[in-house]
Amino acid sequence: MFLTRLNFLAIRDGAMTSLTIELPDEQKAELAAKAQAHGLAPEEYARQVLQHDLAPEWLRKSWETARETGVDRLSPEDIDAEIAAARNARREIRPRPGA
After folding, report:
1. Using 50, 70 and 90 to split pLDDT, how confident is the model at 5?
2. What is the pLDDT of residue 98?
3. Are 16 and 25 in contact (CB under 8 A)?
């Protein structure tokens, strides 16, 4: 079994952290395949996986709710349209000065 090293530099809460992970070749190949499927370098994919796993519970619950409701599949244009609609609805129910 051969080991491959992945080196990471990350900034979290203003502090730089360095991490080295040694993987067997089989896991390196699996990591590379998953990264490629997401259009990422293996190091970037691994960083994102770690960040997701280390996310606070409230954020993971938010992600789950977004998946359940389909909000995670909205395009940036759809999100902008939803925001505009919510703002317009709020303006309509606000009492107008002098009215």
Report:
1. low
2. 67
3. no
